[in-house]
Design brief:
- By secondary structure, this protein is of the alpha+beta class.
- The protein has 2 domains: about 50 residues, no CATH class; about 120 residues, 3-Layer(aba) Sandwich (Rossmann fold).
- It is about 30% helix and about 25% strand.
Length: about 170
C-alpha cells in the first residue's frame, strides 16, 4: 500500500467497512480473526508468521522449504510481482499454486499491464496484471520446469456483487 493519503484513505475505508475505530481492530477482523477461525475449525497445527512476501525466507520461517505453497490472489496486489516470486521460489520444493486474474492481451507475448492508475480509484490495492505468457515465463526463469493452468475459480466479491474469475496455475520444479 502506498504511503500518504492513499494509505490513510484505504485504512479509513477498511475501518468503516468493518465498523471499527482502530487499525488494530481492522487488522484483527480483516486478517487475524479469519485465520484463527479456520485454524481452530480445522484443528490445524499451522503457524502464522507476519511478514511481507518480499521478506520471506527459510531462515525467517525456520524451515528449508515447503511441499506446497499457495499464493492465492496476491501477486496483483504487490508493487513488484517478480520480486515476490523471487522470494518464494526457493521456499518451494513441491508445487506452487497461484490463483490469479490474468490479462487477455499480448497475443502470446509476455505482458504485464499496470492497473494502479495515476491516482487513487475504487480498487486501490491492485497494481499489476500479467498475461498467462508473462507469468509462465517468470516462473520458468525462477526454476519451475512445469507450469500449467489446471482450472478456474469463479466467485462473487461482496458486498458489491462483482463476479470474478481466477485462473488456477500449478508450477513445479
Amino acid at each position: 500500500m502506498p504511503l500518504g493519503e492513499d494509505r490513510e484513505r484505504t485504512l479509513t475505508e477498511l475501518m468503516a467497512y468493518h465498523q471499527v475505530s482502530t487499525i488494530e481492530e481492522v487488522h484483527n477482523l480483516h486478517l487475524d480473526a479469519p485465520f484463527e477461525f479456520c485454524r481452530k475449525a480445522l484443528n490445524s497445527k499451522i503457524r502464522r508468521y507476519h511478514s511481507t512476501i518480499y521478506d520471506l525466507s527459510a531462515q525467517k520461517l525456520g524451515v528449508d522449504a515447503f511441499d506446497l505453497i499457495f499464493v492465492g490472489d496476491v501477486l496483483l496486489h504487490t508493487f513488484s510481482p517478480l520480486r515476490a516470486l523471487v522470494s518464494i521460489a526457493p521456499l518451494c520444493r513441491g508445487t506452487l499454486i497461484i490463483s490469479s486474474d490474468l490479462a487477455n492481451e499480448g497475443y502470446g507475448q509476455p505482458i504485464m499491464r499496470y492497473i494502479g492508475g495515476e491516482e487513487r480509484s475504487r480498487d486501490n490495492r491492485s497494481w499489476w496484471i500479467p498475461n498467462r505468457s508473462c507469468l509462465e515465463k517468470m516462473l520458468k526463469r525462477l526454476g519451475f520446469k512445469n507450469v500449467a493452468v489446471v482450472g478456474h475459480h469463479t466467485g462473487v466479491r461482496k458486498p458489491e456483487g462483482y463476479v470474478y474469475d481466477r485462473t488456477i496455475i500449478h508450477a513445479t520444479k
